[in-house]
Write a structure and sequence with these properties.
409 residues, mainly alpha, Growth Hormone, Chain: A, 16 helices, 0% strand, globular, DHA1 family inner membrane transport protein, membrane, transmembrane helix, MFS_trans_sf
Length: 409
């Protein structure tokens, strides 16, 4: 990073908000498709489950693209990496808007998704380098607030555009967002060269192989997968079970986005103060919200409230999960570890969207999605509990010989 001083306690650096703008643009690409499933399915003559695979395809592209692009760009200045990724994002969304059929749309979605993991991975490292140690989780949450704003504003706006002007208009709008984000990053993010440029590749890969880093990636994937079992199919859940009209989906999604903004900031604050309780507590809260949703699927008022609660619970987990991986990857290869964790989030997204489709078409049906999601998230909580237990056991093992040596002395 450049040698600019760290900010005073009460404020965040302006470069952090430039990263937020970029994360807003990329977040729009991930989330808007969920408010367009019915229109895309009807226009391209595919099933709802097939349209849902557009979420899975995007998430798998993130999973593959994050480590590959991070390794390919490891010797580039971080600002140049971020700008190149935003350019690919802009072109990819234009290709989505022009796609003549389902296969082309899927391919364009995958190309667009390749930028996602590396942007958030590199961006998270840049963000934590801009602030003091006790504000790193908050810096991550500020950057990721662009993702939450993409849900709060981008997803319902995309659903509204799709309803009134066709789903292609949404992708054209995202291309415009990409151009604006590109300009903001170019103007405000300082030039820097990543520390990983001086680190041997084998050392970066060794960082990923650390047991606690691997456990962190697994808890991220499983913990967050439950969210996408439900949110991928939020449109049919609201229209076919709760009884809302299609025009109501867009304003209801505002509740989810608003909840994400609150949960994201809350998770960052909690993780700054008590990282481990924040990790376990937010995953438990997410599983509880998903499980309780099973009982309110046919109540309009309750479903609106639970859509908002799901947003809070889902994004309260993001900063604790990302911070845990960064801390255990301290030293060589933080860029790569951070990108791998973004890939883990999206592998969870892909698995959740796929599992939801299986439950609808081959399993117990649409009504089963919340309790299936809760079970998936609980598995992530179990991994987190195991990881914390191993960490504490290791700390005691290190402390015991030191204590014995002190007594002998």
């Amino acid at each position: 990073m450049s040698a600019s001083p760290l900010p005073a306690r009460g404020r965040m650096p302006v470069a952090l908000y430039a990263l937020t703008a970029g994360s807003f643009g990329i977040g729009c690409a991930e989330f808007v498709i969920m408010g367009l499933l019915l229109q895309v399915a009807a226009d391209l003559q595919v099933s709802i489950a097939a349209a849902g695979l557009l979420v899975t395809g995007y998430a798998l592209g993130v999973t593959a693209g994050a480590p590959v692009l991070t390794l390919l760009s490891r010797r580039m200045p971080r600002k140049a990496v971020l700008l190149a990724l935003m350019a690919i994002y802009t072109v990819g969304n234009a290709a989505c808007a022009l796609a003549p059929d389902y296969a082309t749309l899927m391919a364009a979605r995958v190309v667009t998704s390749l930028t996602h993991g590396t942007f958030f991975g590199v961006g998270a490292v840049v963000a934590t380098g801009l602030v003091p140690e006790d504000r790193k989780a908050s810096a991550i949450s500020v950057m990721f607030s662009g993702l939450t704003l993409a849900t709060l504003l981008g997803m319902p706006a995309g659903a509204w555009l799709g309803l009134h002007f066709g789903w292609r208009s949404t992708f054209w709008a995202m291309s415009l967002v990409g151009v604006v984000s590109l300009l903001v990053i170019a103007l405000l993010v300082p030039r820097s060269r990543g520390e990983d440029a001086r680190v041997a590749l084998r050392d970066e890969l060794a960082t990923i192989a650390r047991p606690q880093v691997l456990l962190g990636l697994l808890m991220t994937m499983l913990g967050f997968a439950g969210v996408f079992v439900v949110i991928t199919y939020v449109q049919p859940l609201l229209t076919r079970l709760a009884g809302f009209g299609e025009s109501a989906v867009s304003p209801i999604l505002l509740m989810f986005g608003g909840g994400m903004v609150i949960g994201n900031l809350l998770g960052g604050r909690l993780a700054d103060r008590r990282p481990t309780p924040a990790l376990l507590g937010t995953l438990l809260a997410l599983a509880a919200v998903l499980g309780a949703m099973s009982f309110v699927l046919h109540s309009r008022i309750a479903m609106v409230l639970f859509v908002g609660l799901l947003g809070v619970a889902a994004f309260a987990t993001v900063s604790p999960l990302q911070l845990r991986v960064l801390r255990h990857a301290a030293g060589a290869g933080q860029n790569l570890a951070s990108s791998f964790n973004i890939a883990a989030f999206n592998l969870g997204n892909a698995a959740g969207a796929w599992l939801g489709g299986v439950a609808i078409e081959r399993g117990p049906g649409l009504e089963s999605l919340p309790w299936v999601a809760a079970l998936v998230t609980l598995s992530g909580l179990a991994v987190a509990g195991w990881s914390v237990r191993l960490e504490r056991r290791s700390a005691r093992a290190v402390a015991l010989p030191a204590g014995c040596a002190a007594e002998r002395g």
